[in-house]
Every structure is written in C-alpha cells, then in structure tokens.
Design brief:
Helix content is 41%, strand content 14%. The protein has 19 helices and 16 strands. The protein folds into 2 domains: 197 residues, Rossmann fold, CATH 3.40.50; 240 residues, NAD(P)-binding Rossmann-like Domain (Rossmann fold, 3-Layer(aba) Sandwich). It is globular and about 75 Å long. The chain is α/β, with parallel strands linked by helices. Bound molecules: nicotinamide-adenine-dinucleotide and uridine-5'-diphosphate-glucuronic acid (UGA). The site of nicotinamide-adenine-dinucleotide (NAD) has 27 residues, from α6. Keywords: NAD, Oxidoreductase.
Length: 513
C-alpha cells in the first residue's frame, strides 16, 4: 500500500470552526482513499479511544487489535469487555463501518499508516528495578512485531504510559530492522479517567503530542494533530518534544494522586481534632490557585495507573541521581497505604478489637463508581486486612462479579497488570468471602458495613430496613463519605466517616496505623 502520510499531501485539510474544507486537489485524491489507523491493545484505553476516533473521523478506517481472543470476541459482541458510560452507543455506531476489532494483529499493523500502541506497562516484579520500574515487555514485543511486518512507512504512537526516554528505545528497535522503512515515533499519552472516558475523550482538557524536532518529526506531529482536530479545538492540542510529552503524563498522574494523599493526610488530622475534612477541602479549594476538584477524602486512591506511574517516576528519579525527589513522590504512595491501613484498624478497633467470625458487608469493590474495573482498588487491601483478622465478608458491587473478586483477593501484587490470558486462570478461592447481587443480602445479619466505592445507589438504600436486619450494635464505616451520617445515627447506627468528627463510641477507640 502506498504510504499516504509522508508524501507531502496527506492531512492537509484544516478545520475552521466546525467547517471542514479541503486545501488542494491532491487532498481530494487522498481523502477519497481511506487513512488506516491500527491500535495494538484493546483495553480500557485502546478500545474507547479508537471508538471515539472512528466516531469523529468517518474518513479514517480504525482497527483495534489484541492478542487476547476473549477480549476481541467481547468487543465484537453485545457485551463489551469493559463497562464505561456511553461506550456501547459509540461502538455500535461505528463497528462494522470504520471500526473493527481483530486478533489479526500483524495484518492490520502492516496495512496501517498510523499505529497506536496501548498495551500494558506493568510494574516490574523481578530483576532490575523490581517493584518500581515499568516492565516494557509487551511494548517491546509490539515494537519488534511492527518492525517485522511493516512494508511501508509508519507513524508509531506511544499511547501507553511509559518511562521518559522510552521513545528512544522504541526507535532503536524499529530502525534496527527497518529494511529502509521510515518510522516516526510520537508520544501521545492518554489522560482519560475511567467512568468518564467517553466524555473525557469527546471533550478533553488537552491532547498532548510529542515528537522529534526534525522535519519528519514535525510532519508526523501534524498528521496526528489533524486526526484530533476533527473534534478537538486546535488550541487544546499541545505539541511538545518527545521527552516533555512522556514526562508530562507521569507528572500529571503524580500531581493528581498527590492531591488525594494531601487531603487524606488532612482527614487523619481532622479526626484527631474535630475538624471536618469536607469543610476544610471546600475552604481550601475555594482558592482559585488550588481549585475544588479532586479533593475528596477517601479510603485511598486505586486504579491501574496512579501507583504504577508514581513508582515508575520514583525509579526514574533514583536512576537520575535524585533520591530526595524520589522520596518526595514515594510519600504520596505511603500516605495512600497508611489511609487504607488506618481504615481497617478503625473497623477492627471499633468492633471491640476483633472482627473474627463477624459478618462484614462490603458495599462496592470497584476502584471508583461507574466502572467495573478493580485494578489496585483499595477494596483489595481493606478486604485482605479484614480477612487477616478472620472476618467473614459479604461483598456486593453492581459491576463486579464473583470471579473477578476472588481473582483479585488471591492474586499476587502486580499480577493483575498483565494481559488477561496470562493471568492465573483459576486461583484458589478465598474462604470466608461470599459475593452477592444486592446490598440487602450483603448486609443481612451483618455486624458492620464498609462502603468502599461511591456508587450512587448506596446513598439511597433503605437504611432503616438494613438496620433492622443487622446485628447490634450496627456499624457503618463509610470509606467514601457517601451516606448521610446524621440520618443513619438517628436510625441507631454507629457511623464512621473519613475525616469527620467522630462518634463518642469511636473516640474511645482510636485507630492508629
Ligand atoms: P489494559 O490491560 O486494559 O489493555 C492492554 C491490552 O493490551 C490488553 O488487552 C492486552 O491483551 C493487550 N496486549 C498486551 N501486549 C500485546 C501485544 N504485544 N499485542 C497485542 N495486544 C497486546 O490496559 P489499559 O488500562 O488500556 O492501559 C494501557 C496503557 O494505557 C497503560 O500503559 C496505562 O498506564 C495507560 N493508561 C491507562 C488509563 C486507564 O484509565 N486505564 C488511562 C491513561 C493511560
Ligand atoms: C486517573 C487520572 O484521573 C486520569 O487523568 C489518567 O489518565 C488515568 O488515571 C491513568 O493514567 O490511568 P482513573 O485512575 O481512571 O484516572 O480515575 P480517577 O478519577 O483519577 O480516580 C483514581 C482514584 O482516586 C479512584 O480510586 C478515586 O476514587 C480516587 N479519588 C479521586 C479520590 O479518592 N478522591 C478524589 O477526590 C478523586
């Protein structure tokens, strides 16, 4: 196939407001042929991102490929492999038109002009940098495959979050075996958050594209910028050098996670002093230099990226001879671990210093609402802590099934971040954990309730009915500050809310991590 991206006339149309016009007759020729994009990795990022590109760029053919047959089958079915509000609609509109999902990785890569790579970049579990550095195994194998199958020039886009300077290594892999083919590497990190992925993609705060400062690099940046310019205002498309783009992604996640650890650190002090963390966060966030978002105290942050990316940042700092900077960022994770431990200790100490044999209802297991994703969810550490004290858990989450919860509670640290088909198939199930399909079954006869995800439905449960069916005293430990604590106290519950003035009951039983 003729390469369309480096022959000087591709993507030369511009967007003015919402009106698309064509600059030259040559473009007309190009636009009548379809540009082909391929994305390696059909996960939480690859799937939604490519679906939105397909939706907004009907003139571009988009193929999403993966080595996991189960994942690809799910993308081609009525039950998509991930739960994300609005995703079904976008996929249904484009699938079978300009959007396809396939396991034929090599064919689609060979045919593409632009190849996005959105594969897993887990934390290394062994060898140099174990427990901190990013494991680039999947990225490297994708790059080698691209080099092997390419027959025409390609733009290769880093979509995965990677250590700064990864593009240099990828470039070496690609050009070492290039057979005269020209590869331009771009860094185009993704900033979407799960649960709001589609709206984040449709209306991003910014799109970041980093490339080489050479004529070819600039051309490649322009080509990718013109894809996004189909729907993103050009002033929100930031173009930088490669290293700034790679580092900005790690920096953005570190800054976001730092806000949560900052407010969570304050929550411990609020409990000790009688201040209310919501009032403190509101007052602090009113300063426009600080801003109100991302200041909700919680049982701790989870998700597939914050911890992984900060560990990666810490490792990069250490490798660059900056131990003080490494220690600074490491503290964000330490406070997060402290918050989870503090929560477990609070439960155990409140319930007469033991939860052995007691039924605890766990409401919510996903790492945040509006997703079924459980990667690094704080629920894993909290449940493990309670199981360690011999509690009997009854878990309910509207989007997470029994199999996933059992896998999460039995998997080794960091195992979750490998392609699904490489994870342990049938882990031994964890005793004393049952998974149920509604909050009332979970809480029946329970001694205590832990709310670990802020699902909206937990705000409006019939707590009087729940109270009537529980053992007494009945406890609620709200790890997300979603319930109306005063209302629950009136019913008779003993309520713990993160960072809020404590019930007298709890004051006498201080929980220290
Ligand atoms: P994911 O695990 O959901 O998806 C990755 C997919 O890549 C898997 O389906 C896996 O089977 C596939 N894969 C791995 N190696 C492959 C290969 N050689 N060929 C073909 N397919 C291969 O991961 P994700 O959440 O989509 O994250 C991907 C990257 O994006 C990570 O680097 C992550 O840090 C970053 N990121 C994630 C988010 C998020 O919200 N999840 C947001 C921004 C950035
Ligand atoms: C985060 C970033 O927000 C995205 O910009 C980034 O692209 C992504 O990581 C990534 O690189 O993977 P995500 O992890 O999907 O997105 O979800 P967030 O909304 O950031 O929530 C992360 C965790 O922090 C959740 O457990 C959430 O409950 C917790 N959180 C968030 C709080 O405890 N308090 C808050 O105020 C906000």
């Amino acid at each position: 196939m003729q390469n369309h991206l480096n022959d000087g006339f591709v993507f030369r149309y511009k967007l003015v407001g919402s009106v698309e016009y064509i600059k030259s007759g040559k473009d007309q020729l190009f636009l009548s042929k379809m540009v082909k994009i391929c994305c390696i990795g059909a996960g939480y990022v690859g799937g939604p991102t490519m679906a939105v590109i397909a939706l907004k760029c009907p003139n571009i053919q988009v193929a999403v490929v993966d080595i996991s047959t189960a994942r690809i089958n799910a993308w081609n079915s009525d039950t998509l492999p991930i739960y994300e509000p609005g995703l079904d609609e976008v996929v249904k509109k484009c699938r079978g038109k300009n959007l396809s999902f396939s396991t034929d990785v090599e064919k689609h890569v060979a045919e593409s002009d632009i190849v996005f790579v959105s594969v897993n970049t887990p934390t290394k579990t062994q060898g140099l940098g174990a427990g901190k550095a990013a494991d680039l195994t999947y990225w490297e194998s994708a790059a080698r495959m691209i080099a092997d199958v390419a027959k025409s020039n390609k733009i290769v886009v880093e979509k995965s979050t990677v250590p700064v300077k990864t593009a240099e290594a990828i470039e070496k892999i690609l050009t070492h075996n290039s057979k005269g083919i020209n590869f331009s590497i771009l860094s185009n990190p993704e900033f979407l958050a799960e649960g709001t992925a589609i709206s984040d993609l449709l209306n991003p705060d910014r799109v970041l594209i980093g490339g080489r400062e050479t004529p070819e690099g600039k051309k490649a940046i322009e080509a990718l910028r013109d894809v996004y310019a189909h729907w993103v205002p050009v002033d929100r498309i930031l173009c930088t050098n490669l290293w700034s783009a790679e580092l900005s992604k790690l920096a953005a996640n570190a800054f976001l996670a730092q806000r949560i650890s900052s407010v969570n650190a304050m929550s411990a002090l609020c409990e000790a002093t009688g201040a209310d963390v919501s009032q403190v966060a509101h007052a602090v966030g009113k300063d426009t230099r600080i801003g109100p978002k991302f200041l909700n105290a919680s049982v701790g942050f989870g998700g597939s990226c914050f911890q992984k990316d900060i560990l990666n940042l810490v490792y990069i700092c250490e490798c660059n001879g900056l131990p003080e900077v490494a220690t600074y960022w490491k503290q964000v994770i330490k406070v997060n671990d402290y918050q989870k431990t503090r929560f477990v200790n609070r439960i155990v100490s409140s319930m007469f210093n033991t939860v052995s044999g007691k039924k605890i209802a766990v409401l919510g297991f996903a790492f945040k609402k509006d997703t079924g994703d459980t990667r690094e969810t704080p629920a894993i550490d909290v449940c493990k802590g309670l199981i360690g004290d011999k509690a009997k858990l009854s878990i309910y989450d509207p989007q997470v099934n029994q199999d996933q919860i059992q896998r999460d509670l039995s998997m080794k640290k960091f195992d979750w971040d490998h392609p699904v088909h490489l994870q342990p198939m049938s882990p031994t199930s964890v005793k004393d954990v049952s998974v149920v399909w509604d909050a009332y079954t979970a809480t029946k006869d329970a001694h205590g309730i832990c709310i670990l995800t802020e699902w909206d439905e937990f705000k409006n449960l019939d707590y009087q009915k729940i109270f009537n069916d529980m053992q007494k005293p009945a406890f609620v430990f709200d790890g997300r500050n979603v319930v109306d604590a005063e209302k629950l106290r009136k019913i008779g519950f003993i309520v713990y809310s993160i960072g809020k003035p404590l019930d007298d009951w709890l004051k006498d039983m201080p929980a220290v991590a």
